[in-house]
Amino acid sequence: MNFDENINRYNTNSLKYDFKSAKNKPNNVFPMWVADMDFKCCEEILEDMHKKIEHGIFGYSKEDEEYFKSIQKWYINNFNIKLKKDWLITTPGVVFALATAVKTLTLENDYVIINNPVYYPFTEVIEDNKRKVISSDLVLKDNHYEIDFIDLENKIKQYDVKLYLLCSPHNPVGRVWRKDELDKIVEICKKYNVYIVSDEIHSDFVWSGKHISMLNYEDYQNNIILCTAPTKTFNLAGLQVSNIFIPNEKIRKEFQLQVWNTGYSLINIMGLTACKSAYEKGQKWLNELKKYLFDNINYVDNFLKKNLPKIKLIYPEGTYLLWLDFNDLNLSDDKIEELMLNDAKLWLDSGKIFGKKGTGFQRLNIALPRQKLKWAMEQLEKTFKEY
Ligand SMILES: Cc1ncc(COP(=O)(O)O)c(C=O)c1O
Predict the structure, then answer these.
(1) Is 0.70 surpassed by the pTM of this model?
(2) What is the pLDDT of residue 168?
(3) Which atom of ligand 1 is nearest to the CA of 34?
(4) Are 262 and 318 in the same domain?
């Protein structure tokens, strides 16, 4: 576990490193945007994948009892929820599952509610499937985002919303929803019969508070789809494996049909192998990783306070994605973008892609070796200190 190791990711088909010109970015920028990590995944996972490779046969594969047990144990140990095997449907990614849930639970032109600023594929999967987005925007108060429950309820009522895509923990604002907030969400959704699709892909990265899974609401389980994956936690995004849990049998069957209708039916064997290995053997590695990431977050926090106090970190309760507020600099998004790419030579995600409320923000991925992070922060300082 050497998170300081600098690993060259160029020429590895990496979306983050190798497709700059395809994404209209200069070739000399350092990428800190998409949410994968610049760390090697844990040795135990690699060993199990090597064994699979040595076996040499990669025929059609399917998840079994052992695969499920590994996930079940992780969720009992870490989140105190007892998942059932019947509830599980595997998909090649959480975004795929979000799109499938939208198709399963709503009709064309229906409104689906989200909380902007939020992970931008939430909007895409709604609009690409000819549904309409309604956002109950999060409210920023004293460097901290909250849900406006009055607005949430009003919009659910006004737009006859039947589906809520919840990001928990929330990317990009880093909130880990408290129990009283989740209680309120469930109370409102119950009142108006709203299904909740809870994207909990970041639940293993919690720095303060406690992640509470939506499936902890047992009396509302029939209206919940839980989206999970080992891919953020263990840096396996390219293996395209995610585990979706749907207690309601009728919805599960409809969801399964929607999945089959795309032509996808069987899990990728390397994804299966890595997922099982991660949940069975990865806890120790994850504990070490979390310490390293937490130190990275605090490094950025201290650096900004000391050297760039006008750029404010919305200090995260969860996730390794930092939401930086540039609004005090009074620069347009275009100007921030131009300075970031051409002067700082850093490629972050521009806040505006997460919805209008993201104007003046940038999202910074800090899952990389400290030395590189230090260099990036110095680049930021050199570029923005004069503003
Ligand atoms: C909230 C959230 N959901 C889903 C994903 C992507 O999931 P997948 O790669 O499994 O589609 C991300 C990746 O950043 C994310 O932040």
Answers:
(1) yes
(2) 98
(3) 14
(4) no
